[in-house]
UniProtKB/TrEMBL annotation:
Protein name, as recorded: HTH arsR-type domain-containing protein
UniProt organism field: Streptomyces noursei (Streptomyces albulus)
Alphabetized PROSITE patterns for the sequence: HTH_ARSR_2
Domain HTH arsR-type: 234-320
Signal peptide (from-to): none
UniProt KW RNA-binding keyword: no
SMART domains: HTH_ARSR
CDD domains: HTH_ARSR
Domain of life: Bacteria
Keywords: DNA-binding, Transcription, Transcription regulation
SUPFAM superfamilies: Winged helix' DNA-binding domain (SSF46785)
InterPro entries: ArsR-like_HTH, HTH_ArsR_DNA-bd_dom, Metal_resp_trans_reg, WH-like_DNA-bd_sf, WH_DNA-bd_sf
Gene Ontology terms, MF aspect: DNA binding; DNA-binding transcription factor activity
């Protein structure tokens, strides 16, 4: 059982992450790759990734558990791979040793390579660097546009639940078996884990690669990072096809624009992402706005656009 003991300040500082973290998603993917239980959505994905994963990336599997655990230094919630790798490689020896000892106590083997990592051996950490880079290139890089689209659709939906139904609905809906006991959030977990928060807040971070219980990790700024399975995991987020009902309804360009606008975009940003002129992007936004699917607001010289509740509902039903 996972028990998160919150203060009122923590609950007043619940936020939703604004972007996916590539190394967090890589860690989740490597954990899900090792699962052999009832997650049929991921079965074809597992077979495909197992065939294509380069041997250079295999050392990661010595560090992360199919239970959803990994050394905390391995998957910092950084915005890009380069920044994340810098953080991984700068891990102090004491922290690396403590995290590797924790993982071996859970279910990871104490191999000679893991011992060398704990000793901050240069060659061992070079192997880790190459493994992370190879894993990212093989599993994350090609899927990154779909990961981003799925992440932003999920966080827009979760933010709407938070705004319309309140904190209780937003948190208890993250995963099955979540309940409140006073100021303590309880959730099913493979082992007993008690976390006591100290008013820094909680950030909700969906993962498109995880399909099980709630996961918790400390954020570098002191917040608690709650990682939960996105409603629509990556294997169900196939690229749009002509049979896509949303595309059939509003056209391919406007369907793409609506999916982009689960996050705020200026007209210039929208034009760039759609690969059209600003005038064409403005026209597409006007049609979506007049249909009630987006709203627009001017800020100085910039015009910002984002989805309405109706637009989010249309995207949600399209995914269904």
């Amino acid at each position: 059982m996972l028990r998160i003991h919150c203060t009122s300040e923590d609950l007043l500082r619940v936020t939703v992450a604004d972007r996916p973290a590539p190394l967090v998603e890589l860690g989740m993917a490597m954990e899900m790759l090792q699962r052999r239980d009832g997650h049929p959505v991921f079965s074809p994905w597992r077979r495909r990734v197992a065939r294509s994963l380069p041997r250079t990336a295999h050392p990661i599997l010595q560090l992360v558990s199919p239970l959803g655990a990994g050394p905390l230094f391995l998957d910092p919630p950084s915005d890009d791979l380069e920044e994340g790798m810098d953080q991984v490689l700068s891990t102090p020896r004491a922290r690396a040793r403590a995290e590797l000892r924790r993982m071996c106590a859970i279910d990871r083997p104490l191999t000679p390579w893991v011992r060398h990592l704990a000793d901050r051996d240069r060659d061992a950490w070079q192997i880790l660097k190459l493994a992370v880079q190879a894993g990212h290139a093989s599993v994350i890089a090609e899927a990154w546009p779909r990961i981003q689209a799925g992440f932003h659709a999920e966080t827009a939906w979760r933010s709407r639940i938070l705004a319309q139904q309140g904190l209780h609905a937003a948190l208890t809906g993250l995963a099955p078996s979540i309940r409140w006991r006073g100021m303590t959030l309880e959730a099913a977990f493979p082992r007993d884990l008690d976390l006591t928060l100290h008013g820094r807040g909680i950030t909700l971070q969906p993962s498109l690669f995880w399909a099980d219980h709630l996961l918790a990790a400390p954020h570098p700024d002191g917040r608690l990072l709650l990682i939960y399975p996105a409603v629509t995991p990556l294997p169900l987020r196939d690229p749009s096809s002509p049979a896509d009902p949303l595309t059939a309804l509003v056209g391919s360009t406007r369907a793409h624009a609506l999916r982009l606008l689960v996050r705020q975009h200026t007209t210039t940003d929208l034009a760039h992402d759609l690969a059209v002129s600003p005038a064409a992007a403005s026209m597409q936004a006007k049609v979506l706005r007049e249909a009630g699917l987006i709203v627009s607001q001017r800020d100085g010289k910039a015009m910002w656009h984002w989805c309405t509740a109706l637009g989010l509902d249309l995207l949600a039903h399209g995914r269904a």
